[in-house]
Amino acid sequence: MSSTFHGLQVAKRGMDAQQAALYTIGHNVSNANTPGYTRQRVSLETFPAYPAPGMNQTGTAGQIGMGVEASTVERIRDTFLDTQYRDETIKVGYWDARAGALEKMEEIMNEPTEDGLSAVFNQFFEAIQDVASHPSEAGARSVMIERAEAVGDTFSYLSTSLKTIQGDLQNERDVAVTQVNSLLEQINNVNQQIQNVEPNGYLPNDLYDERDRLLDEISKFMPVSLEYTKSSGNASATSEGVVTVQLQTSQGPITLLDGKTHQINAISLTTNQDSYVTGIHIGDEIRNPESFPQGKLKGLIEASGYIDNSGNRTGVYASMIDDLDEMAYEFVNWFNDKHEQGVTLDGENGVSFFNEISQKEGAATGIVIADKIKQNTNNIAAASSASSEDDGTGRKGDGQNAQLLSQFRQKVLINSGNGAVSLDGFYQSVIGQMSVDAQQANRLKSNSETLQGAVEQRRQSTSAVSLDEEMTNMIQFQHAYNASARMVTMIDEMLDKIVNGLGTGGR
What we know:
Helices cover about 55% and strands about 15% of the residues. By secondary structure, the protein is an alpha+beta fold. Among the domains are: about 5-75 and about 465-500, no CATH class; about 105-160 and about 320-425, no CATH class. It has a four-stranded antiparallel sheet with strand order 3-4-5-6, covered by helices on one side. The longest helix has about 60 residues, at about 140-195. It is rod-shaped and about 150 Å long.
């Protein structure tokens, strides 16, 4: 037989359950703008009916309902959308890093404009033509020297600026490694907090949100796979447990964070004296930069430079700096060689126009006009030794060698992947490749961001707090709470009749 106060208990359970739902709605509304927050819902279940089945059960006509209870408070989240979002985030991180690096490079190279290296070469070419037409004019020779200085300054400016940006990218790359290790530490701390809560039967939803936010962050830098391990004790069936984070590589997964042992395998980079990455350490594992998986970290390593499997330095900025050095080295050596074959106004030959450059590395910053040329414009060897003539002043100046020098753009040959090409052709291919790479990076970055945005929109439609929906739920649970409270009032009146009204007939 049920208790006299059975109804009161049922009404109380109803009030408690609706109150829990209203408190959860309040929590949702408070965190409507909190990054990474997932809306929560109270799961309501009927309380076990009375009496419970058994040999000694009371002889009632049937089971009487005992009300409702709030069983759990769960997050509304779709793990499939989380996986999709992180997959797209990896691509966004990689292409964003490449696009940013190439955008800065395009700004430095400044082609095609009137201030780029190509335009400076044009002006130098025109100045040599003027000397070829007027070999005895000191003014034309002075302009040629000034234009040559502009060529050297432009080469130096471009190379120095590229190295400065490359240094910034190397710093950003090192910061990215620090961020990854910091994220692993934070995920490990949240794992431990979750492990302390779950065995008591609770669902630490806010800790789950924080961990998912951190996993979203780390997926920007590299692809990771997740493996969940249930907590021991009295953990809820819907608890998530601790997470093990693994880096996905072509040679197999590498554990970054072991959720069971809480061990972290931090990432570190080994670099050479020029800060080019030679290896990536993950705990005891070592990976070559070329085989490291896609993500922001890989994009920054490729942009700032690394040592490939063949032992050569490569990368977006490294290649452009090397190309400029190659151009400067071939240009100066060819120009000096032809200039030394000519004759100065004073009849001297074997005079170098530029200071000698003995090695390609750093050649772009080492173009300096020879002191002898700067001291006297007559030392420009504009005449050819074979046809030099006395112009009546005892000087040689037929301009034929200057005519040969003016052809440097087509005569200087540089080895490229397609064989020897002219200086013009080489520079055009370098600038063209940079533009193609930048367009590709921007296009794929845009595509990845579009896909990421679409997935994020679907994810938000599932997990984000809708204030309209919360208001509707608030009214729904408020009415249910009021109804339960009215039940209490009604049962109180019933009990009043029992306590104060019964047994008074004979008085």
